[in-house]
Write a structure and sequence with these properties.
Elements (H helix, E strand, L loop, with lengths): L1 E6 L8 E6 L10 E11 L4 H6 L6 E3 L3 E9 L11 E5 L12 E5 L3 E3 L6 H21 L7 E4 L5 H12 L3 E6 L2 H8 L7 E4 L7 H8 L5 E5 L17 H7 E9 L8 H10 L2 E4 L4 H4 L4 H17 L9 E2 L4 H9 L6 E4 L1
Parallel strand pairs: 9-10, 9-12, 10-11, 12-13, 13-14, 15-16
Antiparallel strand pairs: 1-2, 1-4, 3-5, 3-7, 3-16, 5-6, 6-8
């Protein structure tokens, strides 16, 4: 059977995605299930994180958000049986590519898929749902009555944050990166309190946030990247000082910026507000088994909310396997946010 792999180069810029043949062992390992994959989501491959974790291969498996049907189970598997429909995210060290016809995966990385939820939909949105859940519940301790600022709310991750927050009674402000995205966000239901355009060159982010919160600032900020200096190429991203200024007393800033640098004045400002900065590592749940039960609870809650219509991800057009290489290259180069392959 065929799978998608990343062939390592001398530098990160020299990666190449290839489809090659692979096989599975005859005997399943302890607590493993064999799944026939129906759809697989493609997200950017973090080669630096893999190196930090000591996971370095000549060919790195690609495609980890999977939805499919259980075909076989090991004798000690207790959660699933053949013909169960399941969804899950393969761990970072998995030898299987999610684009293989069949994969072997530990039962503790899977949950049941609701019957009315399509495989393509859940494979394309599961990772963003986990990230949104982690940012709002685990890091920011979201509660009804809080005020949330989501940067780039029209992104797949931002949309999940907005919908999850609205469901829990949080007042949501968000930014838009284009006129089309601005219109899309204003038409969302349930609606956000304010959509702030940042694409016209003169961002009024901070004044609008303070006006909407009576000068108090927001309880939670979730970014999609940060501008550390005044770089022209990243003008759509908020400056770190604007984010800190937008925070209220006791506020939480959840950032995805891997190399965030805070100067002493920034730290002093955060100290005066008794505010906190938390780093959102998208892979944290699958790199540590310390809270595996909690992770499974999150996965289950996300797919149930998708099935109930609480979370409504943007539909991704599924591509066939023979277009997976081109689709993954576009995702890796950030030319598109997400891709889904239907097998």
């Amino acid at each position: 059977m065929k799978g998608l792999y990343c062939r390592a180069g001398v530098s990160d810029a020299e990666f190449k995605f290839v489809i090659q043949e692979t096989t599975l062992p005859e005997v399943l390992g302890s607590h493993q299930v064999r799944v026939r994959v129906k759809a697989c989501g493609l997200s950017p491959l973090d080669l630096k994180l893999l190196a930090d974790m000591g996971i370095q291969r000549d060919f790195t498996p690609v495609g980890r958000e999977v939805a499919g049907v259980v075909m076989r189970v090991a004798d000690d598997v207790s959660f699933f049986q053949p013909e169960d429909e399941v969804v899950g995210i393969l761990p970072l060290d998995s030898p299987c590519s999610g684009l293989c016809d069949h994969i072997d995966i530990d039962e503790y990385f899977l949950v049941q898929k609701p019957e009315k939820l399509s495989s393509v939909c859940v494979a394309g949105a599961l990772r963003d749902g986990v990230c949104a859940y982690t940012a709002l519940h685990t890091h920011a301790r979201m509660a009804a009555g809080h005020t949330l600022l989501v940067m780039d709310g029209a992104s797949s991750f931002g949309l999940m944050c907005i919908q999850l927050a609205c469901y829990h009674g949080v007042k949501v402000l968000t930014t838009s990166h284009s006129p089309q995205k601005h219109t899309f966000l204003e038409q969302l239901r349930p609606s956000v309190a304010k959509v702030i355009p940042v694409y016209n060159g003169s961002s009024d982010l901070l004044p609008v946030v303070l006006e909407e919160t009576g000068g108090l600032g927001v309880d939670i900020v979730i970014d999609s990247g940060v501008r550390l200096q005044d770089e022209e190429e990243s003008e759509l991203l908020p400056h770190k000082h604007d984010i800190i200024s937008a925070l209220g007393v006791g506020g939480h800033w959840v950032t995805s910026h891997k190399d965030l640098q805070l100067d002493p004045p920034d730290c002093r400002f955060l100290y005066l507000k008794s505010a906190s900065v938390t780093f959102l590592n998208h892979e944290v749940w699958t790199t540590s088994s310390a809270q595996q039960g909690r992770y499974l609870h999150i996965l289950k809650d996300i797919v149930e909310k998708m099935s109930a219509g609480v979370l409504r991800p943007q539909a991704e057009e599924a591509v066939p396997l023979y277009e997976a290489t081109v689709a993954m290259e576009a995702v890796q180069r950030h030319q598109k946010q997400k891709a889904v392959v239907q097998l």
